[in-house]
Structures are given as structure tokens and as C-alpha cells.
Specification:
The complex is a heterodimer. By secondary structure, chain A is of the alpha/beta class. In chain A, 33% of the residues lie in helices and 17% in strands. Chain A has two domains: 258 residues, Aconitase, domain 3; 139 residues, Aconitase, domain 3. In chain A, strands 4-3-2-5-6 form a five-stranded parallel beta sheet, with helices on both faces. A four-stranded parallel beta sheet of chain A has the order 10-9-8-11. Chain B is 32% helix and 18% strand. Chain B is built from eight helices and seven strands. The longest helix of chain B has 9 residues. The chains are: A alpha/beta, B alpha/beta.
Chain lengths: 418, 163
């Protein structure tokens, strides 16, 4: 019997030839990550249980500041200091301070992610790193304390769902529209406790950014891990960043899948998730004309250079509609730098956008652009549960093209029109 | 364990259990004050709940973010146990890791109404509803999760097994 990607990764880590779904196993963790939020709780709990004991391996720890950055108030400032002091004391080199950007993206850029790695982090969207063929999963405070102290974590081997994408992506439809369409069909609990492999002809030529968009939204299906199969250009990217040879992990041809979904994405219209659930997805055309107060472009799902480039094409020589606030947020400092060098900032500023420092922005009621009750936001982020961006706010999830077009029109608008 | 049931719906996410704006808090007593604050009718839950009450939820309870605060705040505010039709993965993990047992029970929101008095046993998963007289068999923890939870949580379990 063959194995799926996650079964192979867990088997390799445990030294077993074969693992099967529902087995509980202890695995070696290659990287255990905290953020500026949730992170201080990890450190306080670590010190409560282990005092000044050295961590298992400081090189297998990363600390990313991406939510309330730079510190928005005294409490946050204190929390960030806890992280910096601990990193100094424990000789943790991989601390990426305010200004670095969205954690998972920074880890990719800084060469901390290898194909086949097992990564745990206090971020539910950790699993987007499956774009790089690693088993990355969101966990809580106590898990990270354990990984830091002992280098190991327990996991239940999940069953795997296979999602096959056929056909061709036709602009202005994007990877975001595709994954929203998939989410509508799989549902918010459709992949609960499962690993999800997204594959098929339509994914083969997808860039790293597009793969990030796909894998990040598996969190909204309640998936434990997400993967796109390895591709030479992704492996080349990782090799360049890590300075290590990369061995991509493919599923066996006779791997056992619990469920399979097939989608032909040719001719798919742009999609939008309506309040208050990420699987409440409709064609954008059905809600066209809905007035908008704010538009957010960024997040771990859609804050890449390619996303910003597409937005700049739409905003070029246009203005954001009166009464609409547009926030454009590069995911990392590297993305921001490329956007600056290539003239994108000029376009954003001339259109009337606000461009804060690289971070998670308003996600998780973080920092830039929280809503007042009753306000409507079109966001390229990933989640629109009630209160996600401020109590009483209504959040629509869409592609960068739909979001940018809507910001110019002042109402939800199908992209690509005249 | 005996207490009153607070019945809530499906897909209650972590922002409703513990709103994101309180993430910077590190003191568990402070976290407790904001338990379920994101659900409109339960804004004052921390003042209304009695020690030993139960939260009874539909499917996918605790979906959304990875914040362990969402499990800790309910324990600290005095909720004896969460009984749900299903749990989101990270939420479930977090409850195991902090030794705060949960029960899974299909259709529980059909069998229990807000305010019903329940008697439950986490070890065998038996729930008795005083109002209806019904005895409900829920799914208790088993295997490794049970061992971790019974030890008091993941860190206690690891200390016990490695020392």
C-alpha cells in the first residue's frame, strides 16, 4: 500500500517504514515558531515549568513579530520585550523583529523551511508552508513549550483528502477564486483533522505565491496540513534560500485517500466569500453593487509581490472611490522592497491607498484598519467569522483583483471589466 | 460533575470564544473575564456563569485561530467541561495539552436545551439530562490523548515519561 505526502513525512521522522491514519506518534520537530501574540504565553509557561533550563535546540526555534507591530500599546511592548529577552538569554538567533513581516513568509525567505520538514507554530495558518512541501501545523501554547523543551510533539496521523484541479486559470480569475470555489464545496469542517493535497494539471505551473494562496485557505476547511506537490521551481526556490539540497516528497501512485474532489476551473468566474463564513461563497457577480467602506489587500494569503503587482495594474491612473479606505500591505520587508523598487508604492500613494509596514495588518483584530459596527470590508485575507475584524463589521473575502477593482468603484465589482 | 448547560451553535470560532483584541493578555484570571464575550447574547458570560456549568456546542467548536487562550479562558471562568458535536483540531489539541477534558457527542444540541441541568462523567462519557431523564453516551478521550489529559497535560505527561 502506498503513502500520501504526510504519511511519508511522518514515517521519515519516526524512522518507521509505513504509518497509517489514526496512529498516535511522537515526531521530531524541525522548527517550533511563536509570534508576538501568543508567544509571550509560551515563554512564561516554559519558564514556569523549566526555569532557566536551556531549550532543546535554539536553532530549531523561530520568533516572528507580525501582529501588533511596531508595539501598539504598553502591554504589547512588554510582551515583545519578553520575547526579545528570552531569545537573547537562550541564544535564539532566528528572531524576526517588527518590520520583518508575516511569519510564515519570512521563514520561507530566510531559508528556514525545507521540503519534508515538520514545523509547528502558534499560528493557525502555519499549514500554508505545505506550499514548500513541509508538514506545518498550527498548535497552541503548550505544544510549543513541549517542542522547545524536548524537541518532540505528538500527532495523530491524519487521513488525506485529495483535491484535483483540472483546466486552465483564466484571468482575472486567480488562485484565490479557485480556492474559494473549493471551500464552498468542501465546507468549513470538510477537512477536519485531515491532510489536504491540492494537485492536478491546473496547479503544476502555479507559482509559490499562488500555492501559498491555496494552502493557506485549507485552514478554513479545518485541515491539519495542506500540500501542493513538489515542483522544480519551488524546490529551486527553497534550495536558493536554504543553501541545502531539497528532496521533494511526492505521494505514491497507490496512496490511499479518504476522499477525492475534482474541479474543472476553466471558465470559473471570480468568487467571493460573504459574511459570516469563509464557505459562504458566491460568484462576485451575485453581490455586485454592495457598497464598501474599506478594502484590505494583504495577509498571509494574498500579500505577495505578484498580488501587489496585479493590484497596481488596476489602481494605475485610478483613484480610490470617495469614502473608501484602501489599505495595501506587503507581506514582508522583501516584498515591500521589491514593490518600492518597481514603482508600485508610487501607484498606491497616487491612488490614495494607505500602505503600512509589512505585517498581518487588521487580521485577528490586529492593527491597521479595524472596522466599526456595520461597516463593510472587502479583504484578500482568509477568514470572515463574526468579529474577526471588529465587532459588527461585515467581511467579504475575495481576490486581489476583485478587492482592488471594488476599491476604485466604491462597491463590490467583478474585476476585468472596462 | 453537575451543572447547568449553556447551549450555543455550530462553528463557534475562537474570536467568539476569546476575542482577538484580548490576545496580548498573559494572566489567566484576566483571560477568564472575556470568555465567550464575542457571542452577542453572552457578552457578560463571565458574570452569569456558575462554577461547574457546562458549555454545549454544535459542530466544529473552536475553529479559527490557534490561541490556547480560548481553552484556558473557559477553564478559568469555571466551565467544568465543553461538550460539542465536534471540535476544531487545534482547540481539541489544546484541551488535551492543558488537561481540560472535553466530550464529543453527536446531536447533543438537539438533546439539551439552554438551562438544562446535566450530570456528566468525563471518564466514561455518560451525560444525564435531568429535565428529559435521558442518558446520553458521549465519546470520552482515549489512547494517548487520555493519558496526556489524565497526567494533567502535555508538560506533566512528558516529565512523567522522561524522568
Amino acid at each position: 500500500m502506498g503513502s500520501t505526502i504526510i504519511e511519508k513525512i511522518i514515517a521519515k521522522s519516526t524512522g518507521k517504514e509505513l504509518v497509517t491514519p489514526d496512529e498516535r506518534l511522537w515526531v521530531d520537530v524541525d522548527l517550533a515558531v511563536i509570534r508576538d501574540f501568543g508567544g509571550p504565553n509560551v515563554i512564561l509557561e516554559y519558564e514556569e515549568h523549566f526555569g532557566d533550563q536551556k531549550v532543546h535546540d535554539p536553532n530549531k526555534i523561530a520568533i516572528t513579530f507580525d501582529l501588533h507591530v511596531p508595539a501598539k500599546d504598553e502591554k504589547v511592548a512588554g510582551n515583545q520585550k519578553i520575547c526579545r529577552d528570552f531569545a537573547h538569554k537562550q541564544r535564539i538567533r532566528n528572531l524576526f523583529d517588527v518590520g520583518s513581516g508575516v511569519g510564515q513568509h519570512v521563514l520561507l525567505e530566510k531559508g528556514l523551511v525545507n521540503a519534508g520538514d515538520i514545523i509547528a507554530g502558534t499560528d493557525s495558518h502555519m499549514n500554508l508552508l505545505g506550499c514548500a512541501n513541509s508538514f506545518a501545523s498550527g498548535v497552541g501554547t503548550t505544544d510549543i513549550v513541549a517542542a522547545w523543551a524536548k524537541g518532540k510533539l505528538w500527532f495523530k496521523v491524519p487521513g488525506t483528502i485529495k483535491i484535483v484541479l483540472d483546466g486552465n486559470l483564466e484571468k482575472p480569475t486567480s488562485a484565490k477564486d479557485v480556492i474559494l470555489h473549493v471551500l464552498k464545496n468542501v465546507g468549513c469542517e470538510g477537512a477536519l483533522y485531515k491532510s489536504v493535497e491540492i494537485c492536478g494539471p491546473a496547479t503544476e505551473n502555479m507559482s509559490l505565491s499562488e500555492r501559498i494562496t491555496l494552502t493557506s485557505m485549507v485552514t478554513e476547511m479545518s485541515g491539519k496540513a495542506a500540500f501542493t506537490p513538489p515542483h522544480d521551481k519551488i524546490m529551486d526556490y527553497l534550495k536558493k534560500r536554504t543553501n541545502k539540497e531539497q528532496v521533494g516528497i511526492f505521494p505514491d501512485e497507490d496512496a490511499q485517500y479518504e476522499e477525492e474532489y475534482d474541479f474543472d476551473i476553466s471558465g470559473l468566474e471570480p468568487q467571493i466569500a460573504c459574511p459570516d463564513s469563509p464557505d459562504n461563497v458566491k460568484p462576485v457577480s451575485e453581490v455586485e453593487g454592495t457598497p464598501v467602506d474599506e478594502v484590505f489587500i494583504g495577509s498571509c494569503t494574498n500579500g505577495r509581490y505578484e498580488d501587489l503587482y496585479e493590484v497596481a495594474q488596476i489602481l494605475n491612473k485610478n483613484k480610490v472611490a470617495d469614502g473608501v479606505r484602501l489599505i495595501v500591505l506587503p507581506s514582508t520587508a522583501e516584498v515591500a522592497r521589491a514593490a518600492l523598487d518597481n514603482g508600485l508604492y508610487q501607484i498606491f500613494f497616487e491612488a490614495g491607498a494607505v500602505v503600512p509596514n509589512p505585517s498581518c495588518g487588521l487580521c485577528t483584530t490586529g492593527h491597521h484598519g479595524i472596522l466599526a459596527p456595520g461597516e463593510v470590508l472587502v479583504s484578500t485575507s482568509n477568514r470572515n467569522f463574526p468579529g474577526k475584524v471588529g465587532k459588527g463589521g461585515e467581511v467579504y473575502l475575495a481576490s486581489p483583483a476583485t478587492a482592488a477593482t471594488s476599491s476604485v468603484k466604491g462597491e463590490i465589482t467583478v474585476p476585468g471589466g472596462a | 460533575m453537575k451543572g447547568k448547560a449553556w447551549v450555543i451553535g455550530d462553528n463557534i470560532d475562537t474570536d467568539q470564544i476569546y476575542p482577538g483584541k484580548y490576545l496580548p493578555l498573559t494572566d489567566v484570571k484576566e483571560m477568564a473575564k472575556h470568555a465567550l464575550e464575542g457571542i452577542d447574547r453572552l457578552e457578560d458570560f463571565s458574570e452569569l456563569v456558575a462554577q461547574g456549568d457546562f458549555v454545549v456546542a454544535g459542530v466544529n467548536f473552536g475553529c479559527g485561530s490557534s490561541r490556547e487562550h480560548a481553552a484556558v479562558c473557559l477553564r478559568e471562568v469555571g466551565v467544568a467541561m465543553v461538550i460539542a458535536e465536534s471540535f476544531a483540531r487545534i482547540y481539541y489539541r489544546n484541551t488535551v495539552n492543558i488537561g481540560y477534558p472535553v466530550l464529543e457527542s453527536k446531536d447533543i444540541t438537539q438533546k439539551v436545551q439552554d438551562g438544562d441541568v446535566l450530570e456528566t462523567d468525563a471518564s466514561n462519557g455518560i451525560i444525564k439530562n435531568e429535565r428529559t431523564g435521558e442518558t446520553i453516551q458521549a465519546l470520552p478521550l482515549s489512547g494517548l490523548e487520555r493519558e496526556i489529559s489524565d497526567a494533567g497535560g502535555l508538560l506533566q505527561y512528558m516529565k512523567k515519561t522522561t524522568e
